[in-house]
Design a protein that fits this description.
Elements: H1 2-17, H2 22-34, H3 36-58, H4 62-70, H5 72-92, H6 104-119, H7 122-135, H8 144-173, H9 178-206
Helix pairs in contact: 1-8, 2-3, 2-8, 2-9, 3-6, 3-7, 3-8, 5-6, 5-9
Length: about 210
């Protein structure tokens, strides 16, 4: 029974993390320009946010879930502005100016920036709420031990996706020289900036629905 919940959590975490969005682009870019550890810790930051939302949905914390869903505009605004900031910063950064993030401050920043971007995406909590509701998790009859195991599975599954992605990018990235890394920064910056504009535009669209 518990093993089944763990496996379900792993599948859910892997599936929700897998679609390549701004976090995926950010992790790929950091892996290529700053090193595998930087990219992986960014992924773990996203996995932590996934597990946090999984815990909210899994333990039936409806008041918190409803509050977060109700604050979609502010969450999109914060996330959108932060994406625009990262996009501009990434675009203007030269590979030669970047040191591999072996210092604690750089690695902690990588972790928390990815966590912030994921936690400010209201679609994450909506996705978990929908999936968990379909599994009958988060109701009054919820078994909290099973929910805990499910949340652990979500974290493991999300972490496995980021480990797979980062390892693949790291192997392929050995072929990149400084000139190619410069283009990686510029292309990644543009893509991240576009995601930021989309997030901000969605706020404007909601106000006219």
């Amino acid at each position: 029974m518990d093993l089944a919940f763990l496996i379900k959590g792993i599948i859910i975490g892997f599936s929700i993390a897998a679609p390549v969005g701004p976090i995926g682009v950010l992790c790929i870019r950091r892996t290529l320009t700053e090193g595998r550890l930087s990219g992986f810790l960014s992924g773990i930051g996203a996995a932590t946010a996934d597990a946090t939302y999984g815990m909210i949905a899994g333990f039936g914390l409806a008041s918190i879930s409803n509050f977060l869903i109700g604050q979609q505009i502010w969450l999109r605004l914060i996330g959108g502005l932060f994406l625009c900031y990262l996009g501009i910063k990434t675009f203007t950064t030269k590979p030669s100016d970047e040191s591999v993030s072996s210092n604690k401050q750089g690695l902690i920043g990588n972790y928390f920036s990815a966590f912030l971007l994921t936690i400010t995406n209201p679609m994450t909590i909506i996705s978990f709420a929908a999936v968990f509701a379909g599994l009958g998790i988060g109701t009054i009859q919820t078994n909290y031990l099973s929910s805990s195991i499910l949340v652990i599975g979500v974290f493991v599954g999300s972490g496995l996706w980021w480990l797979t992605l980062i390892s693949t990018v790291h192997v392929l990235g050995k072929r990149f020289d400084t000139k190619r890394l410069l283009w990686v920064n510029k292309l990644s910056g543009i893509v991240i900036l576009i995601f930021g504009f989309i997030a901000l535009a969605s706020i404007w669209g909601r106000n006219f629905i």
